[in-house]
Design a protein that fits this description.
With about 375 residues, this protein is of the alpha/beta class. It folds into 3 domains: about 5-40, no CATH class; about 50-185 and about 305-350, Rossmann fold, CATH 3.40.50; about 185-305, Rossmann fold, CATH 3.40.50. It contains 12 helices and 13 strands. It has helices at about 5-15, 60-75, 85-90, 125-135, 150-160, 185-205, 220-230, 245-255, 275-285, 310-325, 345-350, 360-365, and strands at about 20-30, 35-40, 50-55, 80-85, 95-100, 140-145, 165-170, 210-215, 235, 265-270, 290-295, 330-335, 340-345. The strands form 3 sheets. Strands 5-4-3-6-7-12-13 form a 7-stranded mixed sheet, with helices on both faces. It has a 4-stranded parallel sheet with strand order 9-10-8-11, with helices on both faces. Strands 1-2 form a two-stranded antiparallel ribbon. The N and C termini lie far apart (about 60 Å). It catalyses: beta-D-fructose 6-phosphate + ATP = beta-D-fructose 1,6-bisphosphate + ADP + H(+). Its EC number is 2.7.1.11. Homotetramer. One of its GO terms (cellular component) is 6-phosphofructokinase complex.
């Protein structure tokens, strides 16, 4: 028997064992092909009721994720409760049962109809104890949390303290969570920023101006990098890279020498040189012949109807979260890597630094001439 046939037989037999939930995968490689083998766990707790909440900063596509969680739950015969205003809703018992029609016509809406908040009370043991009281009073069996690293930190602690099955869905425009190639809202935010850059370039070209455009990204430069390449910026400055004013001046002088009709520089809000106004002032000191303007996009990037990519991503992750809970998954974040659904321990997702792709900086430099 060949290795391949032996593995195929083992895999087929292994996955048909009745009465077991499968929630751990082992990956095998054979002739450049990846095989995933599911390991059975002991019988997982039956999930009859799920609570879903959105927490932290809102992101376009959160509504699509809630919709997917609700409809997938009902498809599998599970009751689902919407928890309003994030963890505060769990503490204050602000929740209600959701039905198929509760989530009609929200796929295209930005924001989150469940509302969101950053809960200071949930940071305390007393607050989490109150949340658990309401969790049990509602007879919930599991929790789906849609948000970013702060939301997941709270979910992880809550799950450890009270042995509550929890799955996180990454909803943040920053795209800064490890364990997924993209987070919900990132694509929409990039497109919003790029549309603004395109419009600003029109006026920059008309008046031969230099624009500094500040985008969101306090700790991560993913929006800045993608919108800069998509918007044809001459340079981008992000928190992860230690660019100096001298390097920026050199790039701008090179553009001027090549008779660039317009110059746009993208600044991530968390860059080490300061905000867009700070950087513009430092450049003006050395290149006073430029007519300089500054635009801060701010919370414009959080709003708007989600792109098709964000709607599809949110839908996939919402369904996978429910299916993961049914299979015994807990304390994990569901994500997509290489277009495949993955489950990453929440602790790993929030502690691992997600790095920018250096090749994108190389490409941006080549195209900036």
């Amino acid at each position: 028997m060949t290795l391949f046939s032996s593995f195929s037989s083992y895999s087929a037999n292994f996955q048909t064992i009745a009465g077991l939930y499968f929630h751990t995968t082992q990956t095998f490689y054979f002739e450049n092909t990846i095989f995933e083998c599911f390991e059975p766990s002991l019988m997982a707790k039956e999930i009859k009721k799920i609570g879903v909440l959105t927490s932290g900063g809102d992101a376009p596509g959160m509504n699509a994720a809630v919709r997917a969680v609700v409809r997938a739950s009902i498809y599998y015969g599970i009751e689902v409760y919407g928890i309003y205003r994030g963890y505060d809703g769990l503490i204050n018992d602000k929740m209600e049962e959701l039905h198929v029609r509760s989530v009609s016509n929200i796929l295209s809406r930005g924001g989150t109809f469940l509302l969101s908040a950053r809960s200071e009370a949930f940071r305390t043991k007393e607050g989490r104890a109150k949340a658990y009281e309401n969790f049990k009073a509602r007879e919930l069996d599991a929790l789906v949390v849609i948000g970013g690293d702060g939301s997941f930190t709270g979910a992880d602690i809550f799950s450890q303290e009270y042995d509550v099955p929890v799955i996180g869905i990454p909803g943040t425009i920053d795209n800064d969570l490890a364990g997924t190639d993209y987070t919900i809202g990132f694509d929409t935010a990039c497109n919003t920023a790029r549309e603004a850059i395109d419009k600003i370039r029109d006026t920059a070209s008309s008046h031969d101006r230099l624009f500094f455009i500040e985008v969101m990204g306090r700790d991560a430069g993913f929006i800045a990098v993608n919108s800069a390449i998509g918007g044809g910026a001459v340079a981008m400055i992000v928190p992860e890279h230690n660019w100096s004013i001298d390097q920026l001046i050199k790039r701008l002088r090179k553009g001027a020498a090549n008779q660039k009709a317009s110059n746009v520089v993208i600044i991530a809000e968390g860059c080490k040189l300061g905000n867009a106004y700070d950087v513009a002032a430092k450049v003006k000191e050395q290149l006073d012949y430029f007519d300089i303007r500054v635009t801060v996009l701010g919370h414009l990037q959080r709003g708007g109807s989600p792109t098709t990519m964000d709607r599809v991503l949110a839908s996939r992750l919402g369904v996978a979260a429910v299916e993961g809970l049914r299979d015994g998954q807990s304390k994990v974040m569901v994500g997509v890597i290489n277009n495949r659904i993955t489950y990453t321990p929440i602790g790993e997702a929030i502690k691992t630094v997600k790095r920018l792709d250096d090749d994108e900086f190389r490409i941006a430099k080549i195209l900036s001439i």
